[in-house]
UniProtKB/TrEMBL annotation:
Residues 46-57 have a biased composition (Basic and acidic residues). It comes from Alicyclobacillus acidocaldarius (strain Tc-4-1) (Bacillus acidocaldarius). This is Integrase catalytic region. Residues 121-295 form the Integrase catalytic domain. GO terms for biological process: DNA integration; DNA recombination; transposition. It holds the Pfam family rve.
Amino acid sequence: MGGARHEGGREDGIRQLYEAGVSISELARRFGYDRKTIRSALNSSVEEKQGERASRGERKKGSKLEPYKDYVKQRMQLGVLNAVRILREIREQGYTGGITVLREFMKPLRPVVSAKATERYESDPGEQAQIDLGAFPYYDSHGQRRTIWAFAMVLAYSRMLYVEFIKAADQLHILQALRNALEFFGGVPRVILSDNCSSLVVANDGQGHVDWQPAYLDFAKFYGFVPKACRPRRSQTKGKVERPIRYIRDNFWPVAFVDEADLNRQVAWWRDHVANVRIHGTTHEQPIVRFQAEKLQPLPATPYMLACAGLRKVMSDCRVSWNTNLYTVPWSYVGHTVLVREFESGRLQIEYGGQVIAEHRVLPGKHQISTDPRALQEPPSGHRESSAG
């Protein structure tokens, strides 16, 4: 590190900040050196410290970590690989050592992770936001493997993050989360970039033509943003949000939670007290501070009321299938195609020819049956046989 080694303990200052959790990129920015120089300073500082300890016959480095090693191993086995997060957790338990010892202990225990370079696209304030979903498996209280989905939205300029866990990756839940995100940010970006999930995109030819789901187009028109989809098999163009999904996995997940509401309370605290106040590795600023310069469009006076609709054919047992559950309709509609409409209030309507022919409450879970009393009336004698024929 050239002359920096003789500038009044500059290396000691770098090492102390690094052990406190400051990243190499941030150290390079603060001290005006490139990252290779910072790494060289850290390595030489460690070598000198090891030599001093060896000459004094001290115990090997890492003794302060000894009582916490089992805990660190347990967290890593659960998928927590972020050293800064584990440092925060063990310091709450009384650990007084630095992060260097912790990182050296964790290094041989980490799985081999390969990463591809991602081309970055920087945006003007208020210009773009990016959304994505990530599947987060867990085991419930009965030991059954379940999956919950993290919806993440990032403002591309400030890197301000919104995250919400939803129980299903269907259109209704995605648009509910997107509406919540816009209300959280207090405004609307001009463009929202997404992947090609079937809840939003019908087809994408990769040449600029996207066939959008009508409900998503209507939602975008109401809020005044332009929907944009990344090219098929090129999700790296959405890198600003792909990295936060990984960040959520590393820095927040896994956690113990009672239900979806409890999980979202926890992630909201983490979002506000950790994710959006950290020094971002790319912008070198806190997202909450950079957010003040965003230029978002105003929200509509009233929120968009959501419903999800689709066509279904009535089966011979007077039922239609909707999201793995069955709902009954009157016998006279057997064989006909009907419109099923699910409202965010939890009400489900089945329509034919513009008329509501059955109403239900949306069933929780899967493979259940809901019966409308109107469907219990027996058809005229011989009707079912003739219908089946």
